[in-house]
Structure formats: C-alpha cells, structure tokens
Prior knowledge:
Elements: E1 5-14, E2 23-29, E3 34-41, E4 54-65, E5 68-70, E6 73-75, E7 77-81, E8 85-86, E9 96-101, E10 107-114, E11 121-131, E12 143-151, E13 156-163, E14 166-173, E15 176-185, E16 188-195, E17 215-218, E18 221-230
Antiparallel strand pairs: 1-2, 1-11, 2-3, 3-4, 4-7, 4-8, 5-6, 7-9, 9-10, 10-11, 12-13, 12-18, 13-14, 14-15, 15-16, 17-18
Amino acid sequence: MSLPSITYRKHxxxxxxEPDEPTSTVVLTSQTSYYVDVRIYKDGYQKAQDESxxxxxxxxxSYTTRGSIDxxxxxxxxxxxxxxxxSKSDNPSVDEGDMWPQANGxxxxxxxxxxxxxxxxxxxxxxxxxxxxxxxxxxxxxxxFAMKTENSDTKARGxxxxxxxxxxxILKVGDELTIxxxxxxxxxxxxxxxxxxxxxxxxxxxxxxxSESDLVRSGDLLWKVVEDFRW
Length: 231
C-alpha cells in the first residue's frame, strides 16, 4: 500500500489533439486505495452549482501493478480504477492506463478510450501531479479517512474520502447525484463544490474521525468507516 495522495490533473490529450485542461480535476486516494475523482469545469465555481458544471465524477478502489523489466524490456506501472460509482453510467467501461514517471515528479498516464466526439477508439494522455498532504488545524498528524454506504433497495452507493486538507464525496441514489468538494482554506473548512440534494457526511471527517468500522448517519443512510489512517 502507498501513502495517501492528493493528485490534480495538469492536462488531458486525446491524440492527435493538442493538450488541454478544461476542468479542475482532483483525485483523493486513501492508503487502502479508496479514491474519489471529481472533475469540475473551470468556470463552474462562478456558476449555479448544478450538474452543468460537472464534467465527470467517479469513485471506488484502484489497483496497481508495479513496473518491471522483462527480458530487458521496461514495462511501466499499470493502474486500474474500479468505477463503483460513476456519474455517467451504471455500466462503465474499463478505466486503466500505464503510468510513466517524469523527471520532475509528475506522472504521465497513457491508454486508450473512446473519443467523445467521433466515438472511435483513440489514444489518450493525462499528466498528473501530487499536492502536499498537510496537517490541518489542531490535528496532531496527517489524516486519510474513508467511508462508504450502499443500499440495494434504493440503489444507493456513496463514498467519501478525506486526505489532509481536502475532502470529496459522491452519492448516487438511482439516477440522483450528490457531489461535494471541501478544502481547508483560511483556517477553516470551505465547501467549494456542492451538486445535488442528497446528504454527504464530509463534515463528519472534520471532527476527530471515528475508528474503522464505526457507523455515521447522514440523512437516511448509514455510512461505514472503512479507513482511518494517520501518519
């Protein structure tokens, strides 16, 4: 297992197009590889916060195969992201890519996907960089915290991940989405993205988080703490 991370995307490129970055994309990944990936259009902060500002959001667990050298040929690290929740689909396609470390510490992800305009398979690149994980407020250490909920009767699935000074959550009940992004700014927690009308327990991670396997109620749902890691 790796240390928890806060990762932002610098650009995306659908080959042969030029690199571009129309979104604010942040991925929070816990020590046990729970992650929440939220992609908001850059001008979304100035608009009414509804689904029109959302490019994509998904969450689940990620799985990584380390790079290796096989018969003198270098093979990159390969990652797969399980879309346990996906804002676009209940049956998403496989999300995977090869991860190529760059000299400055960034990571270039390469893979294939359907082009959103042509519908044809194309190669893509995404350039990622890490943010520092910070101790917040009066806390004594850095914190990685995750909790999830699921109810098959109401078709509800939700995942919240906090890493240091960032927290993101996504809840999908049927076709109804609720998404939040929080950040510690100016000595307090600020909710900077809120989409939907559901109840997400992001603020429960701002007090001293509960131990693993504890339950947290938010609205009509019980959320289970699946990670409480400090370092």
